[in-house]
Automatic annotation (TrEMBL):
Provenance organism: Pseudoxanthomonas dokdonensis
Protein name from the UniProt record: S-adenosylmethionine:tRNA ribosyltransferase-isomerase
InterPro entries noted in UniProt: QueA, QueA_dom1, QueA_dom2, QueA_sf
EC number of this enzyme: 2.4.99.17
Function recorded in the entry: Transfers and isomerizes the ribose moiety from AdoMet to the 7-aminomethyl group of 7-deazaguanine (preQ1-tRNA) to give epoxyqueuosine (oQ-tRNA).
Assembly mode: Monomer.
Length: 360
């Protein structure tokens, strides 16, 4: 399986540069399995596709204002993107500079304080920050929100609110779980009124989510590491949902990665079951992998040749996904973080219908 198998042509004009005025006004392409027709809807119509007793699972990570600027002690300008907060005001970060800083070098930060370069591993640097507070608290006042590289503008005041989900609570991501950006209070209330239940996992999305696949054979690709927590309460919610015949619906690929990372075999369940798990994951999901933890997936449109495009292809079928992407390009859907959404059902399941309608 080659990286080029996941290439498609995307007009630059379809890359969303800003969010819509209303979160749930984004379009939603419903992708049933097999040869059933694609359905053009809006995210607010999600309530019609879910049933009482279904469980929506959200990623409740919160984006860090992780972008900083400064100057090396040798005079060169640098940009810092924090990837991971570590104990004792340490952090793992990417550094953009005309010349790579060396261990022992110091960076004077424009926002005050400084950072010492402790070392480097691959593209990430280990930094120790000398700032007048805990690094997490200081960043909330001094850092800038890091927008994805394909958004060709600086982050504005509106992004501070719109590049966070309304249920974000656990600080630690450097990129938003973008499928969750479509949910507002009105949509959540409508879903709750329908009898849909909500659950949460935490997966701190890292800057590695934007890294391209650099090998031709996708099986040779090494995924970046991200921290996640699937708690015991969410595991019980999933088990109860399945026991009553409800469906587990992931809001975003990060939820799928978290749940699949927490899927474990046991003596009682040789085929595996969801179990509580907190720790690192490098799980890489591409066609040939069977996703077992979710029954439907709401997700945005992803970059060509990306690991996320490979994940959704594993879930709904590669040809089905590419047919849907062709449709989305023709119909001028908006792509990537601030773009529109897709509601995917796995190819092996019966065709879904909006709740309240029937198939004969």
């Amino acid at each position: 399986m080659k990286k080029s198998d996941f290439h498609f042509e995307l007009p630059e004009a379809l890359i969303a540069q800003a969010p819509l005025a209303e979160r749930s006004a984004s379009r939603m392409l419903v992708v049933p399995p097999a040869d059933a027709a694609l359905v053009d809807q809006h995210v607010r119509d999600l309530v019609d596709w879910l049933r009482p007793g279904d469980l929506l699972v959200f990623n409740d990570t919160r984006v860090i204002p992780a972008r900083l600027f400064g100057q090396k002690d040798t005079g060169g300008r640098v940009e810092i993107l924090i990837e991971r907060l570590l104990p004792d005001n340490h952090a793992r970060a990417q550094i953009g500079a005309s010349k790579s800083p060396r261990p022992g070098g110091r960076i004077q930060l424009d926002a005050g304080g400084s950072a010492e370069v402790l070392g480097r591993e691959g593209e990430f640097y280990q930094l120790r920050f000398d700032v007048p507070d805990s690094l997490e608290s200081w960043l909330l006042k001094a850092g800038r929100l890091p927008l994805p590289p394909y958004i060709q503008r600086e982050a504005g005041v509106d992004d501070d609110e719109r590049y966070q989900t309304v249920f974000a609570r656990n600080l630690g991501a450097v990129a938003a779980p973008t499928a969750g950006l479509h949910f507002d209070d009105a949509l959540l209330a409508a879903l709750r009124g329908k009898g849909v239940e909500f659950g949460h996992v935490t997966l701190h999305v890292g800057a590695g989510t934007f890294q391209p696949v650099r090998v031709d054979d996708v099986r040779q690709h090494h995924m970046h590491s991200e921290w996640l927590n699937v708690g015991a309460s969410l595991v019980e919610q999933v088990r109860a949902t399945r026991a009553r015949g409800g469906r587990v619906v992931a809001v975003g690929t990060t939820v799928v990665r978290a749940l699949e990372s927490a899927w474990r075999s046991s003596d009682a369940s040789p085929g595996g079951e969801l179990q509580p798990f907190a720790g690192e994951t490098r799980i890489f999901i591409f066609p040939g992998y069977r996703i077992r933890s979710v029954d439907a997936l709401l997700t945005n449109f992803h970059l060509p040749e990306s690991t996320l495009l490979m994940l959704v292809s594993a879930f709904a079928g590669k040809q089905r996904i590419f047919d849907a992407y062709d449709h989305a390009v023709r119909e001028r859907y908006r792509f990537f973080s601030y773009g529109d959404a897709m509601l995917l059902f796995p190819a092996q399941h019966p065709e879904p219908t909006p709740a309240g309608s029937h198939t004969d």
